[in-house]
Write a structure and sequence with these properties.
By secondary structure, this protein is an all-alpha fold. It has 17 helices and four strands. The protein is 70% helix and 3% strand. Strand 1 and strand 2 form a beta hairpin.
Length: 366
């Protein structure tokens, strides 16, 4: 890990400078040598980085959805050219180009965070070894070494020896309890984020190997990070836990406001949109209008959730318009009534019991 961290040493100075700037702010409030001042500096570093990465996150969402959408076509290409790997690769690249899909885009946020993550690890390792780094001079180094988060030094690790922990002014028991709790929280947040994605924001009408792969990763990734976490300093665990919580919250917002077509989340969103229309009598807000306009533009290519939404509007005597608004429509009402009548006619008559069938019908007395 030290070798990897040293590869990103070019960014340790900017990272240490940002931490010191936040530390000067929080140190004035909580005290310069407190765990709050140094811990919140790391949390603020994460928030700053994630705000800068929002454009890449948007690209990641689009790339993931495009990959989900073209999975059936990819599978067809693999089956058609299973004996010709070169032609298979050519057709795959052609499909990516036609659909504007870049498989690597889904990895951009993680790749962009990697230099900051390892730079922070490098900074904290130097603090543990009492070595100045970047803009962190000896006075700041002494302050950081005194900082404890729930009794665990900022630079301590689960695997550290009792002597090394004591040199940082803490007990091995405190360090292992704090790091173990943080590792568990880090793994659980990773698992919940992936589980939320699989249960709510995946098109359930398309069963592909991609979905099985995602389910497998949902269990593997938390275990990998749990294994790696025992070698992370407390400060790095704070960084990773914060970025996991940010990712979880960011994903919850995206799932609720911009769900994947055909997913359970889209059905829930359209149900909320129906309540909004019933309450206001029309569609309010540009984003909601864009959703309705996109459904109208799809025409017969709508998925089940979207067809159900249009049908529910029709039952209310409303019809979605191309500009994203809704208007009164007698045709829509007639279509809804017709659909209801057809459904009623399709219902089977109530089945009689055996005793009812055997009982002879008596004619009324005259």
């Amino acid at each position: 890990m030290d070798t990897i961290a040293s590869l990103f040493s070019f960014i340790t100075t900017p990272v240490s400078w940002v931490i010191v700037q936040f530390h000067s702010l929080y140190g004035a409030i909580f005290g310069p040598d407190t765990g709050w001042a140094w811990g919140l500096s790391i949390v603020s570093l994460v928030i700053l980085i994630r705000i800068c990465l929002i454009p890449l996150f948007v690209k990641q969402i689009k790339a993931t959805r495009n990959m989900q959408a073209i999975q059936p076509k990819m599978k067809a290409i693999q089956e058609r050219y299973k004996n010709d790997k070169q032609r298979q690769s050519e057709e795959m690249m052609k499909l990516y180009k036609e659909t504007g899909t870049n498989p690597l885009s889904s990895c951009l946020p993680i790749l962009a965070q990697s230099p900051f993550f390892f730079a922070l690890y490098h900074v904290l390792s130097n603090i543990a070894n009492n070595k100045p780094i970047g803009v962190i001079d000896q006075s700041l180094l002494d302050s950081a070494r005194q900082a404890h988060i729930f009794g665990a030094p900022l630079a301590a690790k689960f695997t550290d020896s009792a002597e090394k922990v004591e040199a940082l002014g803490a007990s091995l028991t405190d360090v292992r309890i704090v790091t173990a709790v943080m590792i568990v929280l880090m793994s659980l947040s990773q698992f919940y984020t992936q589980r939320q994605l699989m249960q709510k924001n995946v098109d359930l009408t398309v069963k592909t190997p991609f979905m099985q792969q995602q389910k497998m990763l949902m269990y593997i990734f938390p275990l990998i990070f749990a294994g790696m976490g025992i070698n992370f300093p407390v400060g790095v665990l704070v960084y990773w836990l914060t970025t996991n919580v940010w990712t979880m919250g960011q994903q919850m917002y995206v799932i609720n406001q911009n769900p994947t077509p055909g997913s359970k989340a889209q059905d829930q969103y359209l149900q909320r949109l129906l309540k909004h229309v019933a309450s206001h009598g029309n569609v309010k807000g540009r984003r909601r209008k864009n959703v309705v306009a996109a459904i109208v533009a799809k025409g017969p290519d709508r998925n089940d959730n979207e067809r159900k939404f249009v049908s529910a509007l029709a039952k209310q005597g409303l019809a979605a318009q191309a500009d994203g608004t809704v208007s009164k429509s007698t045709v829509a009402t007639a279509d809804a009534d017709s659909a209801s009548s057809s459904a009623a006619r399709r219902q089977q008559p109530k089945r009689q019991s055996k005793s009812q069938r055997q009982t002879p019908k008596t004619s009324p007395k005259k």
